[in-house]
Amino acid sequence: MTGLLASVATVDEMEVVRAGGAAIVDLKEPSAGALGAWRTAALEAAVARWRGWPSPSPLLSATIGDQPMTPPVVAAAAERVAATGVPMVKLGMFPGGEPLGCLEALAPLAARCDLIAVFFGDAEPDFGLLPAIAEAGFHGAMIDTADKSAGGLRRHMTDAALAAFVTRARERGLLVGLAGSLKIEDVGPLAALNPDYLGFRGALCAGGRTGRIDARAVAALATALRDRRRAA
After folding, report:
1. Which of the residues 90, 139, 148, 156 is marked catalytic?
2. Is the pTM of this model over 0.85?
3. Three-state SS at 151
């Protein structure tokens, strides 16, 4: 079943998406790039709030920022986020640099928390890295978009290519997600590919991805995903 990942910019927004039915609450600063990171103190406050939620509660993830693929830089950024208690840490597989070196450097952390590798469908993603990602002990892999002004994920990749990614990642035991300026009309076609979750920010906000989360938009997307599950 495909769940809703909702990216939030504040602790208050965490509460809105939890109430609206998000399966994963994703801490991300939309004004700071594709994977903009929260400050350490804010992450710690978010973890405290999450731990206080009644069970069952959504999963919690956070991004490490738009880091170059330099092993010490990526490892330090991921360690900073994980040290706050966030259980699921997302990091970008950006073009260039040393991706294999980064995966090797992150392997020790992957034994202590759930790491998620984020590919970018609009930035020449190298899905040939999936075996190395799994071997490094990562928990999951997803596709997003780097340039939020260049259209949604399905503008850059066909549904057939996305389906192939879902299959390849799942064959390696990875949690699989799809995101990238998705809209509510993308729910049907993308949920049909059976990813574990679909990620949203802009479609949940009044005024675009840097605006505020709208509870009605969260409820509409959660309902669309539930209806899709019932119809499957």
Report:
1. 90
2. yes
3. coil
